[in-house]
Structures are given as C-alpha cells and as structure tokens.
Design goal:
alpha/beta; 16 strands; 52% helix; disordered C terminus
Length: 672
C-alpha cells in the first residue's frame, strides 16, 4: 500500500521571506570596505579595492569548485590565498560580512504572516535558498523574524553543493523527503529558479500570495538616473524595495498604494524633510512647526531623521487650516487677507462672503447701496467686470470695522492658541507645509502682527513646492524644495502631494478657550474619506521607508545635486504619465479645494469625452485637480494634448495680467 503523504510548502528565502535594504547585494561590499580598517592585518590594497576583489574572488571560487554552489568560506579562502592573510584575519572578515548582512536584512511581513497561517493549519514548512552565507546565520535571521521554528529544515545550496537554478536542489529535496513533485508547493520570486525550474519537475507554484516581488518601474528609474553616487542610489532603491514588500496588503488596490508610497511619496518627502532640517539649522531656526494636516506625516518623518542628524531643533505640530487662519486674519483688515477669497470659495458673491465672515448683508446694506449694489445683486457671482467695485467695497473702512468687530473673538482665540504653542516674537521659528500659494503662512504672520507677537525679521516657511503665485506677508521668507530641484512643473499637480500628505484627523475649523488653555476645534475627529481610501497603508509604508533608509544613509552625502537626478524622473513619470490603474486608485481620492470643505470630489474624475467637453465649455471651475490622471483613466489622449495647449494659454494670460494689470499689487516679496 502506497504511503500517504501530506503537502509540504517550500519558501525561497531572499526577496521572498527576507530582503536587503540595498538595490543589489553586491552594494553591501562598499559598506564592508568602510569598516575593514578596524581589522588588524588587512592589506591596504585589499581595502581600497575590496568591492572589485570580493566579486572577482567569488567568481574564481565558483570556477574551482566541483559543486554547483559554494560557501562564504570558499570565497574567503581565495582571498586568503591571494593576499597572504592570517586565518584569524580571514575569520574576522567573514564575521564582518555576516554582521553587515544582518544589519541590512529586513523581514517581508506578508510572507511571514502567510507562513504563520499555514503553521496554524498544521502545514509543514521548509526553506530553500541558493546562498553562500552560513546555514546557522540564515536560520537565526529567519528565527528572529518569526518565520522559522526550531526543527524546521533549511536547504542551502552553499551547504549541500546543489543549486535551485539547475534543479538539482529540488531533486535532492524530493528524494530526501520521498515526495512526489505534486506534493511540494513552492513560493519564490525568481522566474527561472523559483517558477520555471520547479514547474518543469511538476512542482506546484502557488500564486495566491501576491508578493509583488519584481523590481518596480520606479525603482528601475531611480537606478538608471544620472547620479554619480551609487551608494546613495542603492540605499534609496533598497529602502523603497524593502518598504513596499514589508507592509501587508489585502488586494491590488492596497498593493498599488504601497508601491507608490514606497517608490515616490517616501523618497520625495524624506528628501524634502532632510533639506528642511539642514536649511533650518543653517539659518539658526530653533523650532519647526509642522502645519496640519499636511504636516502630520512630515513631522513623523522629521522625528526619524532628527534622531540621526541631531540638529537640536524642536519639532512641533500646529493645528491650523486655511479656514482657521484666514478667517482669523480678517480682523487685521489687510488687503492681502482677501486674496484667498478668489481661490477658496466655490462661488464669490456678496452673500456667501458675508456669511463666511460671520457678517450679515443687513449690517452692510447702507455701504452696499453707496457702491451701487442692489439687493438682487447680493447673490450674483462676482465676475471680472465687478471685481474692482467688489474689492473697493470690502476695503471700505466702514466695511472693515463691521467685519473686524464680528471676527474679534475668532482672532483672539487664534492668537491665544498660537501664543500658547510658542509662536511669539521671542522664538526663532519657521513653519513647514506642502505649499502651493502660502496663504496660511501669510495669514499666520498677519495674526501675530496684529497681536504684537510677530518676529521683527519675519516668519520663515519651508515648502515642498509653490504654484505660480506666492503670497508673503511683509518681510517674511519662503523657501521651496522643488524650486531648487527644478521640478516646479511637476508641482502643478499639487493635489497629488496633498494626497501623499493626508492625515488621519479632521480639519481645524477654529479654536476654543477652556480656562487658561486654547484647544483646536476639528470639523471631525477622523478623516474618514482618506482612511477609507487606504491612508493606513500609505502612512505605514512611508514611515517604514524612512526608518530603513535612516539606518544606513550617509546624510552628509545627501545633497541637492545627488538627489535631484533620482527624484525628478520618478515624480515626472507618476504625475504626468500614470498608468490607468494608478490613475484609477489615486484619481478616486476625495478632495476639497474649498475653504470650508463644503463638498468633496475625486481629484481626477473619470470622464467621458462628452462630459469633458461639456465641463470645459461651461467653464467649470474644477474639472480635475490632476488632469494627467483623468486623461489616463478616461483614455482621452487627444483631449489631453488639447488641454496642455489650453494650460499654456492660461499661464500666458495670467502672466500678462500679473505683469501689466491689477493683479500685480497682490504680490509680495519672495525669497527662494
């Protein structure tokens, strides 16, 4: 009677259960080289050319060996022979390489969780790897990460002398375990040695575990960038790779969010915050205030980087919003305080502006009549023909007095909160945000000025990027990360970066006084739209990347010129040429560009050709906040080209208006 055997599940090790935070395993040789000077008896010529020598001697050891694979001792025996090293020196070099390997190895949590579920069902697990590292070392790593149990079997090519790549190691396992090929189910990432070879034997390949193991498009773009520092490129790509594999996901949607977070959002924001900390330190800034809600993830990244840089700068979170600051700044009565009305209101009419400012049209009737506005005009949207009259009415001293009186409590509470958080004339601070037009900093500075708390040298602000117009209060300074990177065109798609920087909590709508304290008032505790979209995966992946890269990055080498060539192609590729799947997922993110978030729309709605032209002809204010996404998911290629021509025309018209027209007076000094 034939013996009944249960199915055994085998797992490849590297890039299936664990991975390294470098782009290529040989990149670690540079890190080994940096520490070889600590070992007595190592020749200088070996240290200076270690990366090349280590690769060469491994090839030589393989040629000499009668086995299909070799061990790390075989490699270092070649080095010992060619460089006349003492045995204790060789042992120290082997120990050093193993130590560096351990530092760069990270778990792939989705695989390890799947292994745990299999064990709970009573399945038997084995591990297979083509690897020269010692068996006990790999077992200890797998044990530390919870993938390996005492008594498990690890079949190692370097130990057995047989390879997966030739199929011999699979034959060995089938024979040793007395298994039919269909009783072995294998998981792995290499197309040849983990898929094609075992399938040729009749071994089952399991595809239910979606590991997304292949190198992503964006990682390849980073690797192919014109960066003259391969070490920097390697740790960026390695951290991206390990982060996107290391966060569990349940479906393709979460997988795509994890991929984009690890490959684009995380490298971009990490680089930005590194730049902020060094720029702030060079300017003597003592405190950085990360403005909500964009600052939520940025602050967490900053804390990770600060643990390495030790700049001594205080990092704080500031509950603010355009609504909480801009409305409070009205009490100062400055012309600049009203510019945002054009941008952030869905409809600019006398009625809705008065309502926003806690003022009734009845209180202003006598002034409105003086300017020729009739009651039937109060709900009409202000167009460019009435714009001059509209501004003159709001700048009238009588109008200002009424508005300021009605907003006084709002102003007092906002100033009280800012003072409580340490934003005073005696504190050398700066604010940090994603950017766009800097209205929030302008309003914040205005409020501090109105309360006699504004620093005499102004308020500084650090931003990922600017739009075409930037507003700055008096002698304030603003600094743009993306301007220095020459990617301002990319930041036209600013809504994408807002998605990357979404927070879990709701918007700050104002402040309430509770005894001697001032507390922020939120419109809701949770940002339910973002959470439902997949914010948790995005945030966890960005922070995982930040933790991984901080462990090995030489921050002193992390400068503009080296990072520019790496970031630019990946940001351009995603923002301007997203795949239909990427556009579908990110285009569905619900976003409100209005001050009070009165309505939410997808940042890149899917449109039919008819819908697009109807909206364009009707002059809808917001058709899409990410047109590249809309065109990709809607398959509107011709419309995309037409729209780009239209954008150029609008930019040119805006420039002419600013250069020669009335808008010019609303611009302020800007230091980039």
């Amino acid at each position: 009677m034939q013996k009944i055997q249960t199915t055994i599940f085998s797992f490849d090790v590297f890039d299936t259960v664990i991975t390294r935070t470098v782009a290529n395993p040989i990149d670690m040789f540079a890190h080994i080289k940096n520490r070889m000077g600590q070992i007595q008896g190592v020749p200088e010529k070996l240290i200076n050319s270690f990366s090349r020598i280590r690769r060469h001697e491994e090839i030589a050891a393989r040629r000499k060996s009668s086995n299909e694979d070799i061990s790390i001792k075989d490699i270092y025996n070649e080095i010992q022979e060619n460089y006349n090293l003492e045995k204790d020196v060789v042992d120290s070099l082997i120990s050093l390489e193993i130590q560096v390997e351990r530092e760069f190895i990270k778990p792939i949590s989705p695989t390890i969780e799947e292994i745990s579920r299999m064990r709970a069902r009573g399945s038997e697990i084995i591990f297979i790897s083509d690897m020269y590292l010692p068996q006990e070392f790999i077992e200890s790593i797998l044990l530390d990460f919870g993938a390996f149990n005492p008594g498990d079997r690890l079949y190692l090519s370097g130990q057995i002398g047989l390879s997966k790549a030739t199929g011999s190691l699979y034959r060995y396992i089938l024979n040793e375990r007395d298994l039919r090929p269909d009783q072995l189910v294998h998981y792995g990432d290499n197309k040849k040695s983990d898929i094609d070879i075992p399938q040729s034997f009749g071994i089952k390949i399991n595809s239910s575990l979606q590991l997304n193991l292949n190198a992503s498009l964006y990682e390849n773009l980073m690797l192919s960038s014109k960066c003259d520092m391969p070490g920097l490129k390697s740790v960026l790509v390695g951290a991206s790779h390990a982060a996107r594999l290391g966060i569990p996901h349940e479906n393709e949607r979460q997988q795509i969010i994890g991929d984009i977070s690890a490959n684009i959002a995380a490298p971009a924001f990490y680089s930005y915050i590194w730049w902020v900390l060094l720029k702030a330190k060079s300017r003597g800034i003592k405190s950085l205030y990360f403005m909500s809600r964009d600052g939520h993830i940025l602050l967490q990244i900053a804390r990770i980087i600060e643990a390495k840089l030790n700049t001594g700068i205080s990092l704080k979170y500031l509950y603010v919003s355009r609504e909480s600051l801009l409305l409070a700044s009205i009490a100062n009565g400055l012309e600049s305080d009203y510019i945002w009305l054009i941008t952030y209101l869905p409809k600019i009419s006398i009625n809705n502006v008065c309502e926003l400012l806690d003022t009734t049209t009845e209180e202003l009737t006598h002034i409105l009549v003086d300017y020729g506005f009739k009651e039937e005009d109060w709900d009409i949207e202000i167009d460019h023909k009435l714009a001059d009259l509209f501004w003159d009415f709001f700048k009238d001293q009588r109008t200002q007095e009424i508005i300021n009186k009605n907003n006084q409590t709002r102003f007092d509470n906002t100033l009280g909160y800012l003072r409580q958080e340490g934003l005073t004339e005696n504190n050398n601070f700066a604010v940090v945000d994603i950017g766009w037009q800097c209205h929030s900093q302008m309003a914040l500075s205005s409020i501090l000025d109105g309360g006699g708390q504004r620093p005499s040298n102004g308020v500084s602000g650090f931003y990922f990027g600017f739009g075409r117009k930037v507003y700055v209060y008096k002698n304030d300074s603003v600094f743009s990360f993306s301007a220095d990177l020459d990617i301002r065109k990319v930041f036209y798609h600013y809504s994408i970066f807002e998605v990357f920087a979404s927070a879990t909590h709701g918007k700050t709508v104002g402040y309430a006084r509770e005894g001697d304290n001032y507390v922020p008032v939120l419109n809701k505790e949770e940002n339910s739209n973002a959470i439902a979209w997949g914010l948790d995966i995005q945030e966890r992946t960005i922070l995982k990347f930040s933790e991984y890269i901080s462990e090995h990055l030489e921050h002193s080498n992390f400068n503009y010129q080296t990072i520019k060539s790496i970031l630019k192609p990946i940001i351009f590729r995603f923002t301007q040429k997203p795949t239909p799947v990427e556009a579908d997922i990110y285009g569905d993110f619900l976003f409100s560009c209005y001050l009070q978030e009165s309505g939410y729309d997808p940042i890149a709605p899917k449109l039919s050709r008819k819908e697009f032209w109807e909206k364009l002809i009707a002059g809808d204010r917001v058709i899409s906040l990410w047109f590249s996404g809309t065109f990709s998911r809607s398959n509107l290629k011709i419309e995309g080209m037409i729209w780009n021509i239209n954008i150029f025309r609008r930019v040119l018209q805006s420039y002419i208006r600013v250069r020669y027209g009335r808008q010019k007076k609303y611009f302020f000094n800007m230091d980039i």
